[in-house]
User: Fold these one by one.
Assistant:
Number 1:
Amino acid sequence: MGQPLPFLQRFHGEVTACDRMQMFHHKPVTIWLTGLSGAGKSTIAFELERQLASLGHASYVLDGDNIRHGLASDLGFDKKDRRENIRRVAHVAQLMNDAGLIVIAALISPMREDRAMAREIVGPGNFIETYLAASVDACARRDPKGLYAKARAGEIASFTGVSAPYEIPSDPELKIDTAMSTPAESVAHIFSYLRDKCLMDTDCTVP
Ligand code: ADP
């Protein structure tokens, strides 16, 4: 990656993080959903976004599959490209947090060191690593996109959980077993965390 040019300066606007928190009624954090394909990242991310919107909170889903149509369309699935994908998404999340939005990132992000990099880029105080736990077999039974069948037949290389590793988070802020809870329960779990940590006004409802 290129280094910032030495003559580039940063400009700082007059709208502060505090101003934005008052406007949006929440602390702009990044909820980073990690887990195997089929663990429920997209399902939970978009339901969380829907519920946040219904309460008047501005949030946005950065979904791994969607990102690969544009921002990361030049990247593949080897270790280096996955890391670059995560680096880009983390920078976008950080910018969106800066703008005041709650970001919900839904990426397999299988390697611990890549998630640690994302945490550093976003800012450790704003990063909520959320591990959606579900075994390979449970995900393969769901197989919403038919990818496990293809991966097991050898038609997809470097498929996480089948032919590429997934490193289980050692110390995530949240762990949700999606084989044991419904998507609605998983979203409720995340809401409880946000409320317990005072990251959102509980009474925020836009008419
Ligand atoms: P990912 O984004 O992690 O690849 P998806 O959200 O695309 O996963 O797919 C998960 C699939 O599993 C969906 O079809 C969803 O309806 C289904 N599913 C079944 N039970 C659950 C659950 N408890 N939580 C989340 N998804 C579930």
Number 2:
Amino acid sequence: MRELERNRDAPASTEASSELGRLAVIGNGRVGGSLAHAARAAGLEVRVGGRGQVLEAVRGSDIVLICVPDRAIADVSREIAQAIDVTTYVGHVSGASGLDVLRPAMERGAPTFSLHPLQTIPEPTTTLLGVPAAVAGSTPAATRIATTLAERLGLRPFEVPDDQRAAYHAAAVLASNFLIALEETAADLLTRAGVEDARAVLTPLVLRTAANWSDTGRAALTGPIARGDETTVARHRAALRAMAPEFEPLYDALAERTRALATLNRSQPHVEGGTQVSTPRIVRTREELRAALAPARGEGRTIGLVPTMGFLHEGHLSLIQAARERCDVVVMSLFVNPTQFGPREDLAAYPRDEASDVTLAGEAGADLVYAPDTGHVYPPDFATVVEVGGGLTDVLCGDPARRGSAHFRGVTTVVAKLLNAVGPDVAFFGQKDAQQAIIVRRMARDLEFPVEIVVLPTVREPDGLAMSSRNVYLQPDERVRARGLNRALAAVSDAARSGETSTARALALGEKVLADAGIVPEYLEARDAETLAEVERFDDRRVLVAVAARIGSARLIDNVLIDLSHGEDPA
Ligand code: PAF
């Protein structure tokens, strides 16, 4: 031990670790007994003293380990302070106490430490081999002594800073004591439900679950919440309310934490030997949505929103994938918004396939699908609209002879509501609906929504047709003709890039392509890509060339962005 004295601030050498010196264990209860037993087995010289023999045990010792109940540690520390010198290391084995309880010894100049075996110790002969032990020290040398002693006793030491002691102990209580409380609650409920010997019935499930958790962590989570099955959760709560209402708050609190873990599993799946694809959770109300997002928001994680009307195609999936790459949590909204359909547009016939949408969204990386009912978004007394002016909504598709500005009023109203409901950091839109993206961006800016609007390139079929949910309406011959839209846009942009400065002349080339394909456009126009003002010349501003046409029963739109200062943007 005198070796240690010389090397007080040096790393504990092999020599030092094999020469810990004389150990005094104060307290001969279960913990003291087990530690003294382990110390003797390790070949250490050990003296054990009960409360009446403290001074006798301590005198001449190099290390004193106080193994008495928490409330008595300070008294023992005070008592031994008279019998130790500055070379004696004084430690305790309490989980909840910090080093401050050893203050009398510390004031005497002794370095102090704590060494807490993280294990229930039912008997004074409990084997501690391989048990993790939290160590802390008042000096680096004291920490090293605690570590070395723990290793010699066969424990597995890990450091816990003394100022994190309460958090450490709370974690230990959650993992151990609360587990008992939880299992007792489950057994009580099962007994009330008429099952005999509930503990025996539950034991295999508890042991297997603990083993799975030990192997794979949160990936071991199964059950209705992990599957996003809130209907079953609601049935559980109803049963609890009827049978054991006192357990409902506990169930709710654990359900909330489980939802957060399930969301985490979806956003950062545990992958072992393959790709894991998970089903996103479906939420139907803004309350459910907010509750589902609260943990992520509380942890400061980024939330991405992809608003859709469903019937997903590659274009939507590219938005979800981009959101997945950019954000911690990805929400896809799935709502066929009636207020953006005109009286002559068939809302009822809009294609829908929720089950497939949810699967595809999950594969693309969505964590949550927000799919509210119409009545939830627009209750009977709903009386507010969000309308963007500035000449953005009454041109192109917003022209009164086409869909009209009411269409965009419907879009901005619902997008504002979605942004409020989800509260995303980033919202993703497709460039295919270029005018919509420009209008939404202006609305977000003007109304100061704290969200970044990201607009991503149009996804196209191999022959250039822009992907759209409405393409399903095309008959085979119409599908072939529909290629004309993209070709017409290409003709206009080729002309501009080849030096044609007149938008009218370039558009005329596009109109010819449309005519050759048998397409009568609603419009083919060149407009400023930000203000949507008409442009007569291609110069160094960004120009949006947009087309809309009815082909068979499908109304299709497409566009290209021409930026001669930077080359053409992919659209
Ligand atoms: O682009 C769409 O699918 C819709 O207009 C949107 C943005 C989801 C609003 O209903």
Number 3:
Amino acid sequence: MARKIIIDTDPGQDDALAILLALASPELDVLGIVAVAGNVPLPLTQHNSLKIAELAGKPQTKVFAGASKPLVRPLVTAEEVHGRTGLDGPDLPEPVMKLHKQHGVDFIIETLLHEAAGTVTLCVLGPLTNIALALNKAPEIASRIQEIVLMGGGFFEGGNITPTAEFNFYVDPEAAKVVYASGVPIVMMPLDVTHKALTTAKRIEAFRSLGNKVGDACVAMLEFFERFDEEKYGTDGGPLHDPNVIAYLLKPELYSGRHCNVEIETASELCLGMSVIDWWGVTKRPKNAIVMRDVDHEGFFTLLTERIATL
Ligand code: RIB
Ligand code: CA
């Protein structure tokens, strides 16, 4: 029986590869994709979600629009990383498939109430706004979510949009706080993992050698996406963040970490959005997330490339 998932996302080139990996994997049943404002505004993230589903050759995928702004703060975007469209790099055709009319937050709630309890995993690749809105609107869904697997936060690696905060948590720290206080089982892929998964030239060539439309689009996306971080970190390739969420579902053995308490800073302007991870257990705060710290990055890229080859 395929694992049922909902992908909540702000595409974003790295989101795109995560969505492609999920749609290429028969172990997963993608019940829907819900766009959120993040890397670029919602009109673009919803449009990009449609483009990616069609690129994967899965036009029957249900795509919804979610929140257009964070819970209480103005939206912060990242065009400097992802380009004006959020999906700069490849020249993808305009989508034929249409958005579903239902609001994405209502789709999340309705799906969780309809499906058997504990059988739907939320894969969160952007700011946590939609998830927090769903939990606030229908608290009864918390006990019905199998797991939340998310890309966000950082600790030993610090932050990427401020010295202490990772982008997804920084954009909507109040939403992240709601999710980490919800009691839902969380698996977290922080920058400490994703900064070990670099899109090196050799790995880009592996996508190019696939010789298929999707592989070529991945090359164009990654070559655009990585330039910002290559310059920033001085590395061969940039960190590939979001596909780690999907790869964990497919091959959890690629990752290692520990159960910790994680709290989100929402008051300090200096450290806003920081994920305060009690890695050494120095507080008695309840452990509320499995925090991953290491990844078999060769295995990760092998999995990703093998699956993209099937599209
Ligand atoms: O900090 C990296 C995260 O922020 C990734 O999910 C990227 O797509 C952006 O949303
Ligand atoms: Ca993202």
